[in-house]
Amino acid sequence: MSIWKRLFGIRRASKGAGTGADKIDYEVLDLEIGYILDYDLKSWEVTDKAVYTWENGVTDYEYTIKDGTSTAYLYLEASTGRLSMYTDGKINEMWPQGKVIMRQGEDLINEEIKFGGNTYYFYAEAAARVKNKSESYMLENWLFLDASEKEILSFNLYEDRSMDAFKGIYLKSFEISNILPRQ
After folding, report:
1. Does one domain contain both 105 and 70?
2. Is the pLDDT of residue 5 over 50?
3. Residues 105-131: b if buried by 16+ CB within 10 A, e if exposed
4. Alpha-carbon distance values, 87 to 49, 114, 145, 165 (Å)
5. CB 176 within 8 A of CB 37
6. Which residues pair with 51 in a beta bridge?
7. Is 57 left (phi over 0), alpha (psi -120 to 50) or beta?
8. Is the same domain home to 104 and 117?
9. What would the mean pLDDT of 94-101 be, rounded to a whole number?
């Protein structure tokens, strides 16, 4: 074995690649609670993992991440690999009439939301069973995209009739990097 391989651990990494502690190349799908990742020039820790099982049988993943001062939600559409990042919003600021519309179950196909200087258009609606480390619950979700289809508004109605709002963006896979388990 050459000195370079001994110095840089190439033999060890290649022999044990993909086997637990020796794995060196992690993807978003590998994330678990306690993992560290880099996004937007900051390091973030995964503090929770939620599994969404949509009514059509598709399974997606949401990772709650914290950088020490902020909380965000990294969402992975497992079937396509598409990534998005969300932060908490306030439904009364984002879509004031949304509470009434969602609770009444009105058709949103022609609904537009004006928020933050952008207009968002109805994109999708679906229901899911969500399970994270502490609970399991049902939700209905409504997504709205801006004209560029890069910015997202997401609204959830939970089985207890409470609601949440989130603002998000779609990410390129390279924007999430340096994924490592906490040692």
Report:
1. yes
2. no
3. eeebeebebebeeeebbbeeeeebebe
4. 15, 18, 15, 9
5. yes
6. 61, 131
7. left
8. yes
9. 86
143 and 103, same structural domain? yes
The angle at the Cα of 174, spanning 172 to 177, to the nearest 5 degrees, equals: 130
- In this structure, are 69 and 16 located in the same domain? no
Q: Quote the tokens at residue 177.
A: 């990097």
Q: What is the pTM of this model?
A: 0.84
What is the domain range of residue 11? 1-26
If asked whether residues 12 and 53 sit together in one domain, one would say no
147: number of Cβ within 10 Å: 10
Q: Does the pLDDT of residue 18 top 60, yes or no?
A: no
Are residues 16 and 35 located together in one domain of the fold?
A: no
Rounded Cα gap, residues 146 and 131, in angstroms: 29
Q: What angle do CA 93, 175, 151 make, to 5 degrees?
A: 30
